[in-house]
């Protein structure tokens, strides 16, 4: 008898599964993101099973192909306060956009969490770049990097979405402001317009900026710090010759730009540069790291390509060490020099005395 009940229940479950329209799920298992951090309904449209539809709001577009749903639905685009969503963002990332969906069947307001076909999310924003990341946001607000990388073209990021069980956030790596990290002086700056090459130059440092370096207008600042700031951490037997860093500001958003579409070329001319000079990355904490790409050195000019503003730079040359006296601890060179002068003076007097007599 118990076996019959099991069979009957299984048959009923199978029948129920067959009668539930594809692309729908029960409200008990579906998060309502208006209650989970995304309270703002940006836009709602009604989508029929046989027609394609598009939601466009600000810099976000949702493209919904025909056949995405088996029943008519109300499709809402939601947003949450970025400042609150970003409280859980991964270290080193800065969220600049977030969104979620609320999809309900028009006939009974049942929440829909799976789609027959993926909808396509896209965002066109000056903050989008090659390093932008696309995150899933759980109903509890936790970030998880989406396992499928987003497609990025210029300042547009897009991604396919076939389920509504998480929300999403778009974030960039944070960019250090090197005026606060050892390079306080803006020694030169220029305004870059996409499609127009330019350069910036000061104190023997010239930076050539190709026409395709940035997709949006930016202010490009050349920074420098007191060279003495970089002496304490300098590698053994190396003496800092000069230093520099960049601060690049997106003129549309005010955000710092950390990644370049094309490398700029830094050329540094200094009388202390020679074939033994070295080119170092300087982290925001002031630590020296050997740049993996050797610089090009011609005479007293060193050049190097740069495609990001995540570190500063210092050029060093071999340090010249003066020998010291084991008795006095003073540099020997001045002592020897003084002794030589005295010897020469003595010889002069002897010769002069001989000439007189």
Automatic annotation (TrEMBL):
Keywords: Membrane, Signal, Transmembrane, Transmembrane helix. Residues 1-27 form the signal peptide. It comes from the Bacteria. The chain crosses the membrane at residues 332-351. This is Uncharacterized protein. The lineage of its organism: Bacteria, Bacillati, Bacillota, Clostridia, Eubacteriales.
């Amino acid at each position: 008898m118990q076996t019959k009940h099991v069979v009957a229940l299984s048959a009923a479950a199978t029948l129920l599964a067959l009668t539930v329209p594809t692309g729908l799920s029960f409200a008990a298992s579906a998060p309502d993101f208006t209650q989970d951090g995304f309270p703002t309904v940006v836009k709602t449209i009604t989508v029929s099973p046989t027609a394609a539809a598009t939601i466009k709001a600000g810099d976000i577009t949702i493209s919904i192909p025909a056949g995405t749903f088996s029943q008519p639905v109300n499709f809402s685009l939601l947003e949450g306060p970025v400042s609150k969503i970003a409280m859980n963002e991964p270290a080193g990332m800065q969220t600049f956009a977030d969104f979620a969906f609320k999809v309900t069947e028009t006939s009974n307001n049942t929440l829909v969490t799976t789609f027959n076909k993926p909808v396509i999310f896209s965002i066109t924003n000056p903050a989008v770049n090659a390093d932008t990341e696309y995150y899933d946001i759980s109903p509890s607000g936790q970030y998880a990097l989406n396992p499928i990388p987003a497609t990025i073209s210029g300042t547009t990021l897009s991604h396919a979405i076939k389920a509504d069980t998480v929300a999403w956030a778009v974030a960039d790596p944070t960019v250090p402001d090197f005026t606060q990290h050892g390079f306080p002086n803006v020694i030169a700056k220029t305004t870059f317009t996409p499609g127009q090459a330019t350069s910036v130059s000061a104190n023997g440092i010239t930076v050539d900026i190709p026409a395709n370096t940035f997709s949006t207008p930016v202010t490009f600042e050349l920074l420098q710090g007191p060279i003495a700031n970089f002496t304490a951490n300098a590698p053994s037997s190396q003496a800092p010759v000069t230093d520099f860093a960049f601060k690049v500001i997106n003129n549309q958003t005010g955000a710092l730009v950390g990644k370049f579409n094309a490398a700029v070329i830094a050329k540094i001319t200094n009388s202390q540069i020679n074939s033994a000079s070295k080119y170092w990355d300087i982290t925001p904490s002031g630590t020296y790291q050997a740049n993996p790409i050797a610089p090009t050195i011609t005479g007293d000019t060193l050049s190097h390509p740069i495609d990001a503003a995540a570190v500063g730079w210092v050029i060093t040359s071999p340090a010249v060490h003066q020998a010291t006296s084991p008795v006095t601890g003073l540099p020997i060179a001045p002592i020897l020099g003084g002794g030589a002068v005295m010897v020469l003076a003595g010889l002069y007097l002897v010769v002069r005395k001989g000439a007189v007599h």
